[in-house]
Amino acid sequence: MKIAVIGTGYVGLVTAAGLAEFGHEVIGADKVADKIRRINQGEVPIFEPGLDKLLAASLKRGNLRFTHDLGQTIQAADVIFVCVGTPPQDDGSADMSQIEEVSRMIAENLNGYKVVVEKSTVPVKTSLWIKRIISLYKKTDQTFDVASNPEFLREGSAVSDFLNPDRIIIGVETERARDYLVKIYDKAKDRVFVTNIDTAELIKHASNSFLALKISYINLISNLCEKTDADVEQVAKGMGLDPRIGGLFLRAGLGYGGSCFPKDIKALVKIGEDLGVNMDLLREADRINFDRIRVYMEKVRKALWILKDKTIAVLGLSFKPETDDIREAPSIRVIKELLTEGALVRLYDPEAAANMKTVFPEDSARVTYCRTPLDATEGAHALLLITEWDEFRTLDWPAIRRLMANPIVVDGRNMFDPQNLRGLGFEYYSIGRA
Ligand code: NAD
To answer: Is there a single domain that holds both residue 8 and residue 152?
Structure first.
C-alpha cells in the first residue's frame, strides 16, 4: 500500500516519518518548494525531539521520500493523508481553504480508487465537503472514500505520541476504507477505535476543548486562591489525587496557547452555535484563557509600577517547552504589552528565538535576543518566566541576582520554589500562591 502525506508541517512530517517507521511506503509532499528542498538536504525544518533520527532512519531505509510534485504524489498513492493547516478566522471558524485546495488537487489526479484521510483537525461534517469537491472536480469515473483519522500528537513529544498512541480514532463509512486504515495501523491495532466520520471528527474537537476547559478551570481557581490563603499548586494536587479528575492539565499559569487549543475551542464554539447549540461553557473557558495575560501583567505592574524604560528579561518564548512553535504563544501578548508601555526586552528561548524574530525583529534599542538565560538577565529590572523549559530548573540564581538591576521574578508557570527564591533575596511573584 502506498501512502501520500500532503502537508509536511508539524503533523505531516511526523505522520510521514511515523507511517514509514510502521513499514509503509510513504511520499510526503508540500506546496512550499523550499521546505521540501530543505528536507531533502537532510534538514528538519521544525524543532521536534527525535524527529531528525526518525526521518533519517526512514530516508536511509528507502521507504520515505519527499517531493514538491503534488499531482504525482496523489497519483502514486492508494491512501492520502491530508495534513494541511486549518487556521482560525476572525469569527472563530476554521479556514478550510487549504483542505479545499488539496481536495481539488486530489480530484484532478484521481487515477484509481483512493482513500482520502482527514488528519488535519476539521469541523464535523467536513468529509461531506471533501466528497462534494472531489466529485465536482474529478475528471474520471474512479471512486474514492473519505475517512477521518484525527491526530492527537503533542508538539514536544510528537514522535513517541505517534509511534505509541493512546488511541487511533478511525471514522469511516465503508468497509473498504476501514480495511485500508486498520491495515495501516496494524502495529497498534489494540488501540484502534472505529466510528462513523462525524463522530471521529467530533472526538478531536471535543478532546482538545475539554483539555482547554480543564486548564481554564484551574486558572479560575487560581484567581480564587489569590484572594485567599489557598495555594493553587496544593489545590491542584489534592484534586488530581481523585482518579476521576486526574492531575494532568491542572497547571495554573499563563493559560493555553499553540496552534491547537485556542483555535479548536473557538472552532467548536462556532460549530455548535451554527447548529443552534448553546456553547457558553466553552466560550467562557476561552475568555478565562484570554484574561490570563491581563492577570499576569497586573502582577508585573504591581512589582514595577512603571514599565517605561525598564529592562525586562523574558525567559521562554515558545507556546510550551520542547518546541520552536510560537503560534498563539502567551509570550507574544506579554512582549507586545511590555513594548507598548515603553519597556526594553531581553529575550531568551532555547529553540524559538528564530521564529520569534519574525514577530519582533531584533532591534538593538528595544528588543535584544540573548544567547543564554544569564545574558538575558543582565541589567534587568525584572525576570519574567513565560515558558517552563527544563533548562530553567537549574538557573544560577546567585549569578542572576548579581546581574539584575532589581531582583524581581514574576513566574508565569509556578516553576520556581518561592521559599528558595525569597531566601536568595528575590522578590517573587507567581500564580495562585500566597
Ligand atoms: P503546519 O502549518 O505546520 O503545516 C501545514 C503544512 O501544509 C505546511 O507545511 C503548508 O505548507 C502545507 N500546505 C498548505 N496548503 C497546502 C497544499 N495545498 N498542498 C500541499 N501542502 C500544503 O500545521 P500543523 O501544525 O502541522 O497542523 C496541521 C493540521 O493538524 C491542523 O489542522 C492542526 O489543527 C492539526 N493538528 C496539529 C497538531 C499540532 O500539534 N501542531 C496536533 C494535532 C492536530
So the answer is: yes
362 Cα: distance to centroid of ligand 1 (angstroms): 28
Given a cut of 90, whether residue 111 has pLDDT beyond it is yes
Per-residue confidence (pLDDT) for residue 363, from 0 to 100: 82
Measure 92 CA to ligand 1 centroid, in angstroms.
18
Distance 119 CA to ligand 1 centre (A): 9
162 and 236 housed in the same domain = no
- 57: three-class secondary structure by DSSP: helix
Residues belonging to the chain:
434
The last residue of one of the domains, among 195, 219, 238, is 195
pLDDT of residue 364: 75
* Structural domain harbouring 332: 196-434
Q: Is 10 in the pocket of ligand 1 (CB under 6 A)?
A: yes
State the number of CA atoms in the 13 A half-sphere of 178 facing the CB. 12
Cβ(121) – ligand 1 distance below 6 Å:
yes
Structurally, how many domains does the chain consist of? 2
Output the CA 248–ligand 1 centroid distance in Å: 26
d(CA 169, CA 11) in angstroms, rounded, equals: 16
Q: What is the CATH number for 36?
A: 3.40.50.720
Q: How many angstroms separate the CA atoms of 63 and 20, rounded?
A: 6
Q: Which atom of ligand 1 is nearest to the CA of 122?
A: 32
The number of the ligand 1 atom at minimal distance from the alpha carbon of 7 is 7
b/e per residue, 94-111, with b = 16+ CB within 10 A?
Answer: bebebbeebbebbbbbbe
Grid coordinates 476521576 are at which residue? 244
Mutate-to-test residue for ligand 1 from 10, 34, 149, 268, highest number of ligand atoms within 8 A of CB: 10
The pLDDT of residue 419 is 96
Same domain membership, residue 202 and residue 133: no
The answer to whether residue 265 scores a pLDDT higher than 90 is: yes
Q: What was the pLDDT predicted at 275? A: 96
Question: Grid cell 505509541 — which residue?
Answer: 164
* 33/111 same-domain check: yes
User: Ligand 1 in contact with 201 (CB < 6 A)?
Assistant: no
Q: What is the pLDDT of residue 114?
A: 98
Final residue belonging to a domain, choices 142, 169, 195: 195
| Total-model pTM | 0.95
Confidence of residue 434 (pLDDT cuts 50, 70, 90): confident
Confidence of residue 332 (pLDDT cuts 50, 70, 90): very high
